[in-house]
Amino acid sequence: MSVFTGSIYSFSTPQPTRAHRHFHPNQPISRRWRQKSSVITCCKRTSESMSTEDYYELLGVSFDSKPQEIKEAYRKLQKKYHPDIAGQKGHEYTLKLNEAYQVLMRKDMRREYDASIGSKSRNGFSGLGHSAWKGPLRPQALFVDENLCIGCRECVHNASNTFMMDEALGSARVKVQFGDDDEKIQVSVDSCPVNCIHWVDKEELAVLEFLIRPQPKEAYGVFGGGWQRPSNVFMAAQFFQKQLKQQESDNHNKRKTAQGTVQETQAQANARATASMKLQMEMFSRIWTWVKEISGSKI
Amino acid sequence: MAEQAYTVASDSETTGEDKPTTPYPELAIGIDIGTSQCCVAVWNGSEVELLKNTRNQKMMRSYVTFKDEIPTGGVSAHLSHEHEMFSGSAIFNMKRLIGRTDTDPVIHASKTLPFLVQTLNIGVRPFIAALVNDVWRSTTPEEVLAVFLVELRAMAEVQLKRVIRNVVLTIPVSFSRFQLTRIERACAMAGLHVLRLMPEPTAAALLYAQQQQQVVHDNMGSGSEKIALIFNMGAGYCDVCVTATAGGVSQIKALSGGSIGGEDILQNVMHHLLPNLDCLFSSHGPNEIKLMGLLRIATQDAIHELSSQDSVRVEVDLKNGSKINRVLGRAEFEEINREVFRKCENLVMQCINDAKVNVEDISDAILVGGCSNIPKVRSLVLGSCKKEEPYLGMDPLEAAVCGAALEGAVASGISDPLGSLDLLTIQAIPLSLGICADGNSFVPIINRNTTMPARKELSFTTARENQTEALIAVYEGEGTKVEENHLLGYFKVIGIPPAPKGSPEISVCMDIDASNVLRVFAGVLMPGVRQPVQPFLEVKMPTVDDGHGWCAEALLKMYGSTLDLCTLQKKMLQ
């Protein structure tokens, strides 16, 4: 009946989404919100279902996996979690599986999804940090260089809402940015015996947090393998940022090429000119082609 | 026998002898209630076994005879002659009648059945009656079905020596959710709990998945994906599905179905043989019923003969002076039923299109159901799939029930050490689900062929200034207007804060679980407020009752557009 314009949504800020989340605590967040400002993203990261949001992670496949692999993974998981087998408790999980499968199996939707999760497709970087934010965004954020951390637990002791221990790795990590008041945080930063808690720009945070997580090392038969992380995470971050930019500009160029905005070659220009001339001079075109034919045959 | 179920024995008294012989007390059995025939199967620990009745039959005619006081079904009763079934006292074709209103064309076509079907054409349930001692005694399809199911249950309980409670039933694809509730109702009347309702071709698909896995096991080959088209046409319904099978998982890609079947072919041929059939039998007297029965049997036999030979002679003595004595050729038969065959072909094509598969990728075309013997049906399905030969690995009449028994075992949580039950069927939704919005448009929320379980959410908004209530009317179907679809239920979202039209967000979410239960959630979200204004409503659908044909009209008359909703354009959000 009525036709709506975008204006309705100018004030329908992220809040409704959070209400949605409240409504379906486990439903994967619709992709459209991802593209909004980072404020929302950060609010969302606090929700527990975040880890399942990544469709690739959910299906246990790599970003460059072929549809066949996705299909197999999907079937394998379905056989484990489908309500027919797992009972009613498999319902929520199967819903997520179905959604992930649907998106990843359709080329156009997968491309859109890949774009929405950033330049993740190549190297597993999502563009999002691992820590959540409490309160408003600030220009600075906390980062623990886990290479240096000796696992003294001082920081966790002083600001338990901000820091957490990763028991598997034996190092501390930021759980919630500014989870405690400024004073407590300052105490914990100062209390670190090896000074491994750094204040970093919030733009750098995501890359740093991504890089400090141990990555699987490529294995050659029985050699190699295992996990590794860069020894100097700050240097690595700089390099990584550069790579990302390069990639982005590459993509940008590619898109430009696709849109045909690149300069046409001389031959193409000529062809186009000929074509438009043909169109303009309908009357002459027949003679023109006839002349061309004649000249062509002579040659 | 019946009393024994109520005796309670203390733990100490139960000895080994009393224990059921089957190792799985809660195992669900599979039942395929066909329009004309019916069978029961169960997983016996190593394979699927079809249960036989006392006369050693696997396939039992689906009918119930009303005689004297107690109705008896076709499971155990023995008809002295087939004509007895057409004496007016037997009710059959329940599956064509169940859950339909008297405006339904299928009901109107059923008026030539040899019992009483009355209609008022206003959207209420039809009046159905059986002739008992020269009195038309009314009954309902649910009741007839329940009587029949009680007999099936008793038969299975005697054979399996345990109480049967859970069943997996096969159903036609085109059944509306309201019809499914009627089936569930009949089962409840018979003391059975429906574990799953499986569309018939998907049951055959599960059997196919098992067979394919067996082949892989035997050959030690890789379990590559196979795509199969399953065409199931019985007496009442025609269903098609496309399944992708690998590693024992049957993933339903698309479903399509319609209420056309052998019964329509039979009607067409009967009308062809006796053009003034309707007016001859309009009075439904006992004599007419008998003649109708005679004509029915003769036509049925002729159609069966035509599957194997080119022409058949039909001889019926209609006693009132007229006689039918003529030769019916196969070409003539195909011409009479051209419309039926065209519809079948459309269903197949639609299914292939919906599944988004290339015809060349279809590995097997599986034909099941009684009508799959008709040469024309075979050729059109094989032609659509570009196949020379149909898949020969399964019995066309038993495939569906075997699949249902497999699903019964899988969903009951039974595993097989040899891996024969390492199966899964991933079902899809056969009909789109949505609500009425933007006037009388049908706005789908879950589209058909969405994988189950499914959950989708859509936002709507108010259509008027300061609207405080909104009507959520849930429909099922493919039409763009709500009138073309089945009404499933309705409820009001109340307590919307007064606001300019278009600003409150009314969120409607639909959730279907693996046992095909539909729940609709709805609530109001105001811009800038985190929590919903009122508690969300959760409604299990369908909520409509009999006479639902009237509901939609009544709703429109009563409320008009005052409680209207509008769809929010999702694109604006991005």
UniProtKB/TrEMBL annotation, chain A:
Skewed-composition ranges (Polar residues): 258-269
InterPro entries with a match to the protein in the record: DnaJ_domain, J_dom_sf
Signal peptide (UniProt feature, chain positions): none
PROSITE patterns recorded: DNAJ_2
A Pfam entry, by short name: DnaJ
Location of the J domain: 54-117
Protein name: DnaJ domain
From TrEMBL, chain B:
Keywords: ATP-binding, Nucleotide-binding, Stress response
Record organism: Macleaya cordata (Five-seeded plume-poppy)
SUPFAM superfamilies found in the cross-reference section: Actin-like ATPase domain, Heat shock protein 70kD (HSP70), peptide-binding domain
A Pfam family that the UniProt record links to this protein: HSP70
InterPro entries given in the database record: ATPase_NBD, HSP70_peptide-bd_sf, Hsp_70_fam
Region (Disordered): 1-23
Nucleotide-binding found in the keyword field: yes
Keyword Glycosyltransferase: no
Protein name per the record: Heat shock protein 70 family
GO terms, molecular function: ATP binding; ATP-dependent protein folding chaperone
Family: Belongs to the heat shock protein 70 family.
Domain of life: Eukaryota
